[in-house]
What we know:
Layout: H1 2-9, E1 26-27, E2 32-33, H2 51-63, H3 67-76, E3 85-88, E4 96-97, E5 113-120, E6 123-130, H4 138-145, E7 149-152, E8 155-158, H5 159-178, H6 180-187, E9 191-198, H7 200-214, H8 224-228, H9 230-236, E10 244-249, E11 267-272, E12 288-292, H10 305-315, E13 320-322, E14 325-327, H11 345-357, H12 367-375, E15 383-386, E16 395-402, E17 405-412, H13 421-425, E18 431-433, E19 436-438, H14 440-459, H15 461-469, E20 472-479, H16 481-494, E21 507-512, E22 527-532, E23 548-552, H17 564-569, E24 577-578, E25 581-585, E26 592-596, E27 599-600, E28 605-608, E29 613-617, E30 622-627, E31 632-640, E32 645-653, E33 658-662, E34 667-671, E35 677-681, E36 687-689, E37 710-716
Parallel strand pairs: 3-4, 6-9, 9-10, 10-11, 11-12, 17-20, 20-21, 21-22, 22-23
Antiparallel strand pairs: 1-2, 3-5, 5-6, 7-8, 13-14, 15-16, 16-17, 18-19, 23-24, 25-29, 26-27, 26-30, 28-29, 30-33, 31-32, 31-37, 33-34, 34-35, 35-36
Amino acid sequence: MKFTNFLLSTMIAVSLTGIDVRAESINYGSGTAEVAINEEMFEQNSNGYHKNIAVLSSVLSQCAYNGENLNNAYETLGFDTKNDVTLFGYADQSNNAVYDTDVIDFEEDSQAFSLATREIGDTRLLVVTLRGTNLESASDLLTDIAIFGTPFYEDSASAGFVSFFTKVSVGMSLYLNEHPEIEESAGNGNLKILITGHSLGGAGTNLLGAYFNTHGQVNYDGFSYIDSVAEMYEEKLDVPQEDIFVYSFACPNVYYGDPTTADCDNIMNIVNESDIIPKVPDGEKFGQFIYFDSYDSNGFSAHYGYKYINATENVIPDGVRYYGGAVDTEITENMFRQDSREYHRDIAEIAVALSASAYNGRRETGYYINSAYRQLGFKSDNIEIYGYPSEDYSFSIASRPVGDITLLAVTLKGNSGQSDFYNQIKKPFSQPFMNTMTNPDYYDFYIRVKNSLDEYISQHSEILNSAQDGNLKVIVTGHSIGGAVASLLGNEINSHDSVLKIPEEDVFVYTFGSPCVYDSAMPCKNVMNIMNESDIVTLEPFGVKSGKTITFDYGNFGKACYEPQIYVENLPEKPEYRTYTKITINNPYAEYAVQKNNTVLNDLKKFSDDEHTHIYLSSDDCSVKFTGSTEEIIEMSVSDTDGFKKSYENVSLTVGKNIEYDMKSAEMYVNDDNGNHIMTISTDGTETEIQKDKNLIPVMAGAGGAIILIATSATIMKRRKKGE
């Protein structure tokens, strides 16, 4: 394996070009791309991936292979190439730097890079672009194959890559001596730094970004050249992490230790999954990973620079990425000052981004959810991932300050598609929970999360301090079974026994595609259940959901309508709070009709087996009408997702008789031929004539004032004659 890595490393960072990408504005040698640069771009959170910065970086990284292209790109972007752009190692360029130092010797060295600066509004931007491998340069090849380690951070990094990083550091020190305005802007808090490179340039970019983030925490012993420019990092470029944007493309592995111990959330490593180069040599990279796939059969052709440009332009989504898409959102202080007992789409966007990201896909342990937190401004030190890569019981906890408040987030991973999934959710509600019963599997998951949450809180004193000061907000979310357990946890946090003891209006619980959780009502108003009406998982087994249900309708009922991306793409703008109705008819020959406003509903959500027909309704002003052509006995039970239940037995249906169950009044009647109620039917089947001068007062089923979706269970026994 070592030998294989050695051979592969000799080919690292080869720039392969030759196919145009449809774009305009900047020519990068094998195509053109439309590139923007403005102050607003660099006011974004450096911990997240941003398409506009990624496109700019990918184009500069590709232009770096040719000095003329690079100069033209800088000039197009508004840089003064004569005075403010310096190219190190581009011998054929008039603005090439030639310095007499032992570190930067370009006579035989083609490890090239460039430095450029310009004002953008009130901001000064410093751009560092590192060039990838030049096959005609022997030193580049030797750098690529120098896989032996040299001390870096807490362990070691590839000696060849560190050598390149060292040259760039010295060049930056020399450049800053000629541009004092950069140090002045840093002192005023107005300096932004962009570091980028492809392949070998990506390796140097990764190490340079890591050094910026860690040089104040670790003593880099043995870096004699770095020691000579330490003042540059500590004083002249004393820039906070949020102002440093680091984008590497096709970066090989650079580090032989554990990079996750370093706070490098601002490093974005864009990787083509088909590209062999980012997989070698044995080792790791600092920072986050943004993946795409060009589906090349040849792992080296996938290394082409234009494919990375095309990905940033057209393939990689902007925003918080989950496996299959992205949610373009961010956390603000004001959104969590809203009342948790009402639906808020901005909070729903945060919740659905986390819930969808909780599914791991093909990536390494906890990659997507970890990345999602960091893109939302959470720091690595405050993110804990539990259970991955296990298929079950995986969840995460994170916290961060948001203005004057502290936000605590808990995300529960849903089911990963095991064959026993439906058996799992159809288990009876047999486990006691507070004043109701729940699924025992949900409860086991909940206990694991609760114990870990209590431990997390004990290790983060700022959470309890914020709770005591009234400045703690909590968001709990999950999809599918993760949503069911989120409901349990949300109810626990609301309880008097919770260690947090914060009011209900400060706890935001958002579930997506959650099955029913309880067998009776739970008095909890801050749970928002987002539900696809065509998603059968949300209705089986039929029971109760705490809080409120907000619905949309997408797909064919009973089919694959439960994927998290469906919830992302159909997130309701405004709430339509509902409960649900289920009707089960045991006699397949029974004559029935479901009507709304005297119109028969033919497009019902239903499925049948040999003995039952199951019908689900999403309206409270429907009625179920039975017409007798034979003699039947009706047994029917009614329940809704707010906990309302009612049962009927021994209801007699004879030839020519019309029976109606009215969902709005939750009453059963005998009707005349004109549809007028002439008798009421009690739950034991007793019929009572309605007096003509008696006014019936409708009784609402379920939550008062809310739109009701009742879950009805109607059973018609197989046909039997009177007296049998």
